[in-house]
Design a protein that fits this description.
Length: 321
Amino acid sequence: MLTALAVIGLAVSLDLLIGEPPTAAHPVAWFGRLVGALDRDWSATERGQRLAGVGIAALAPLVPAAVAGGAVLAATAVHPLAGGVVAAVVLFLTISIRSLLELTRTVVAATDGDLADARTQVRGLVGRDASTLSAAELRSAAVESAAENLADGLVATVLPFAVLAPVSLPAAAAIAAWVKGVNTLDSMLGYPSKPVGTASARLDDLVMFLPARVAAIAIAIAAADPLSLARARAWAQVPPSPNSGWPMATLACALAIRLEKPGVYTLNPDAALPTLADGERGVSLVGRAAGVSIVIAAGFVVFVSTGLGLDSSPLVEVFLT
């Protein structure tokens, strides 16, 4: 149990201290190159493309999972401490909170006078056309993305890692890398215009079902407003995604603001779009919700360890001997 908690703590600390590694050195970017090579015409028919996409969704995420699990297994064979450190690095590479909050904060601040810069910066958060968005709509886009990426960029990988880490660090690293692979596939291929990505999008919907709702719970707890989660039910299914609406709608209700993607969805429509102060509060709230998510993950570690009667901690014993 203590080993798992130490590994998660180290991974989160690395994210807070370093942020995301440079793109050229980031394994997620390397996997993205593989996905880019798979994004091609495998068949002359749409049905054939969808069938090829099933194979891609089934096999491609196994590549980062095998690499991550194998790396931790090999390091553990050398020394238990090395295995713990490598597992922490793997988890660190699958999460992104510091960079998310910094970019969101930058966009929100830029809406106070420099809309051109805000429109440029927001491209790192959302894919929508920002050229005509007002300051309030830019703030809405930024905090929507922060809420959604709380699930994608933290909860989705740290929760399964926390469940498996007390049992097997290589398996925990593998599942975190696999989930990140699924998310990457969806972000690159999961568009209606790409039949080859249909299976990847459906798999991502399945994988993100629980993390999106845990992220919403974390936001409600961080806001000290548990009823915001109940109020969010009215709009959680409005966005096209079956999952992203939960953290976004909960954030909208907790802050008493309207979040809107023009022409696509409106969450908490009776409220006003976020002011500058609302945007700043949104960034702070997502940051606190990230902390709550880590506590929830730690709770999973304790629950699994207690349930399985796992009292020994090889990594801690290393420090004590």
